[in-house]
Design a protein that fits this description.
20 helices, 77% helix, mainly alpha, two-stranded antiparallel sheet
Length: 493
């Protein structure tokens, strides 16, 4: 039955679509197949989430080699949640990509863009679903290599520089990760993540294991753009095609955070390694730095995409703060924000793309009075901005509420005020857009400008609506994240 092979199909479907698109080399066919693949990925992810809720962990052995000897795809409530996010953003971004690529990518490269999109989708889904540490590295490289091409397809020459910077940093991160995995294999004789968690208890304090933890942490931190290892991200997001920026902002760093969660709480969680190392303290300091320094940098940007990119760095700080708290409420907040910020930030990048489509500029100097000619786009951007601030009835509020609860559980009262104070910085940089769009007189750049076309506006508004919905009804997001936190914390007991 096909239901028995959903885990494999989750990766195989987009992976097979990429070479087919390259062989056919027709833009319309490439877009249609990408849409089918994206919808199928979301449907499979939802089916896996339902299956995990009903029967528990799903284990799929590739090539009839039983784990831990062979590669295993292993799905639990944690990565099923991430799979749904990836599939959701790929599906919603599909219609947007039709006009985004047409306006921002040379016509003879459209098929290449869609092929790389499918390949990137396969890599991200593979990272989330695999239960093998080296197979995870393979999918990490698949997603990274395709991402470098997607960024380089940007309309400006600076996209090539941004792609090259990302390539260098991504390669360093992947190298660190694979060195760490090699050390773990040296000490345990296995690459299966579940089996690693079992065997590490006997060698938890051996120096190679401590070195492996350090290498894996730095490697993944480069991939998730943890402050101060973030220098590749702003330009990569700013100069990529709009749909690519939206998809990467919502998925790439979130998948890297999932990998960090998996290693910290599943692989190393059953050992006593957290009791003997200042890991949580280090992440607490870096999280606070990201929340304040990166957010403050966002407020000084003159380009809207750069502002959103630096804002993402600050929002990553909220997620890693929840990881540092390492309790039920804090970890729930981190996992919820992984999902909610993915939805919110993708919506904002799609709306930024709508602005560029009409104005051909994202400089604040050229956006004066924008709300008068693009009222729907600006209204949606304000709603997304309110979620970044954490206003009640938006998805962003849910995160900060659970982070405050997590801080109270630890007894660290001073942490309670950090999300609140950092939200004031978010008010600052969101207000910059509001002030320019609503309180300035329109300049010459807006003469003849009208609202973005529906094929661009509707996908963005679907995500804006979800931003509000998940702020009002938290049964899916918080309910799933809470169960995921229980599973992860089970590795610490």
């Amino acid at each position: 039955m096909i239901g028995e092979h959903l885990a494999a199909l989750q990766v195989v479907v987009p992976l097979m679509a990429a070479p087919i698109i390259v062989l056919v080399r027709r833009g319309a066919f490439a877009w249609a197949l990408t849409m089918v693949v994206s919808i199928a990925s979301l449907a499979i992810a939802l089916a896996l989430l339902v299956q995990v809720r009903e029967v528990g962990v799903v284990s799929y052995a590739l090539g009839s080699w039983a784990p831990p000897w062979g590669i295993e795809y292993r799905v639990d409530i944690v990565n099923a949640f991430v799979l749904v996010l990836i599939g959701l953003l790929a599906t919603i971004g599909g219609p947007y990509a039709w006009r985004s690529f047409a306006a921002e990518v040379p016509e003879d490269q459209h098929y290449l863009g869609y092929a790389m999109f499918c390949l990137c989708l396969a890599g991200l889904l593979g990272i989330a679903i695999t239960g093998d540490a080296f197979n995870l590295f393979v999918f990490l490289e698949i997603s990274s290599l395709s991402t470098y091409v997607l960024i380089a397809l940007g309309r400006e020459r600076r996209a090539l520089v941004a792609s090259y910077q990302y390539l260098i940093m991504g390669t360093i991160g992947a190298t660190f990760y694979v060195i760490g995995v090699g050390l773990l294999f040296l000490m345990t004789g296995t690459l299966n993540l579940h089996d690693l968690a079992t065997r590490l208890g006997d060698v938890a304090h051996a120096r190679p294991v401590l070195a492996a933890l350090a290498f894996v942490t730095v490697g993944i931190s480069l991939k998730l753009a943890l402050f101060p290892l973030h220098f590749w991200l702003p330009n990569a997001y700013a100069y990529a095609p709009s749909v690519v920026s939206a998809f990467l902002a919502g998925t790439a760093t979130k998948v890297a955070i999932y990998v960090l969660l998996r290693f910290y709480f599943t692989v190393f969680g059953k050992s006593e390694i957290f009791d003997s190392l200042p890991t949580q303290d280090i992440f607490l300091v870096l999280s606070v730095a990201a929340m304040f320094v990166a957010s403050a940098a966002a407020a000084y940007q003159e380009n809207l995409k750069h502002l959103l990119a630096y804002s993402s760095l600050g929002q990553i700080g909220y997620i890693t703060l929840g990881i540092a708290l390492a309790n039920q409420a804090g970890l729930t907040g981190a996992i919820v924000h992984l999902f909610n910020h993915g939805v919110t930030k993708s919506a904002l990048f799609l709306l930024a793309g709508c602005i560029w489509f009409r104005v051909h500029s994202l400089r604040f100097a050229d956006l004066a009075g924008l709300a008068r000619v693009m009222p729907l786009t600006c209204a949606g951007f304000v709603v997304g901005g309110l979620s970044l601030i954490g206003v009640p009835a938006t998805a962003g509020f849910v995160t900060k509420w659970y982070l405050v609860l997590g801080a109270l559980e630890t007894g660290h009262w001073w942490i309670v005020f950090l999300p609140v104070v950092s939200s004031l910085i978010a008010v600052w940089y969101v207000w910059r857009f509001v002030e320019a769009a609503y309180f300035r007189e329109p300049g010459p750049a807006l003469i003849g400008i009208k609202e973005a076309p529906p094929i661009l506006l509707l996908p963005a508004y679907v995500l804006v609506a979800l931003t509000v919905y998940f702020g009002l009804d938290t049964s899916f997001t918080v309910g799933t994240a809470s169960r995921a936190a229980e599973v992860l914390l089970g590795g610490l007991r």
